[in-house]
Amino acid sequence: PEQVMSPALAALRVKQYYEERGALNNKTNTTVRTAMQKALDHMNPPDGYNAQQLAGQSYGDGSGGWAWGTSAWSTPSMFYTFYPNYVITELLRDNDAAFWNVDANMSNIDLNASANWLIGRQKEEGRWSDWGYISNDVEWTGFISENLANEYPYLNNTMKGAVNASLRKSCNWLLDQNYEEDYKEKDTGTLALSYAILGLVAIRDHGIGDAVEINTTVGALADQLFEKAKATPSGSEIYWSDSSRWDTYESTASAVLALN
After folding, report:
1. Which of 56, 89, 145, 209 is deepest in the core (most CB within 10 A)?
2. pTM for this predicted structure
3. Secondary structure of 234-245 in HEC code, one letter for each residue
């Protein structure tokens, strides 16, 4: 799933970048639409290569998650379900269904089912946990919380209630972490702190939690994150690193996003 959803997310951001500058043209439109359509075709049930495993289909477990392929051994996983759910939510938030031909390209995708799958994997204390592309519980919890808050408008009333209950739990868990002690080393916690900020801000803006407490925690996290910045030898640029990643690109991008 990530091999088609990553180009789709890039296509979405390219479209938004050029649109904001009044620079979209036919060539760009065709390129980004083609990337998005390919991705959605892969994820759309029942015929997509990675079709969502919905109830009543002749493949999969009917859980609402996504997996690599649809064979008997294709079991939905946290990342393979979360990432398409995130990208599709961002696509809907672009609020340009006519440009993307959304109704046709994702006619059978059910965000209620995938959101329900994710909420079903939340631990009782409010966190999400898994190993793979993401292996840090704070990263998981902040990122999924942000996504659930953002996809709320596109869900049915039953799932809206489930999202609110889920976010109350994740908010409490995120606020309860000892970030200063857990990520006191320079090269640790850049991504965790970034996604804790993004998750808490999304939860606060959704209207859940004590806004004063959240703002206090977010301010402390931002200070801690900024202290982890490093300067290039010339001193003209700053960047972030994280011991959980091989390069500095993702860490820097996440930190910049969280701090702005």
Report:
1. 145
2. 0.95
3. CCCCEECCCCCC
pLDDT tens per residue, range 231-241:
999 989 999 99
Amino acid at 44: N
Q: Find out whether 104 and 212 touch, Cβ atoms under 8 Å.
A: no
Please choose, from the candidates 59, 113, 114, the residue with its C-alpha nearest in 3D space to the C-alpha of residue 81: 114
pLDDT in the model for residue 109: 96
Asked if 5 contacts 83 with a C-beta cutoff of 8 angstroms, the reply is yes
The two three-digit tokens of residue 52, written as one number: 């969502």
How far is the CA of 71 from the CAs of 53, 66, 68, 223, in angstroms?
Answer: 11, 12, 9, 47
Show Cβ contacts of residue 49 under 8 Å, excluding neighbours closer than 6 positions.
42, 69, 70
177 C-beta neighbours (distance < 10 Å), count: 18
Give the chain's end-to-end CA distance (angstroms, integer).
29
Please tell me the distance from the alpha carbon of residue 189 to that of residue 168, in angstroms, as a whole number.
Answer: 23
In this structure, how many other beta carbons lie within 10 angstroms of the beta carbon of residue 97? Answer: 13
What is the per-residue pLDDT across 164-194, written as a single tens digit (0 to 9) for each? 999 999 999 999 999 999 999 988 999 999 9
Name the DSSP letter for residue 124.
T
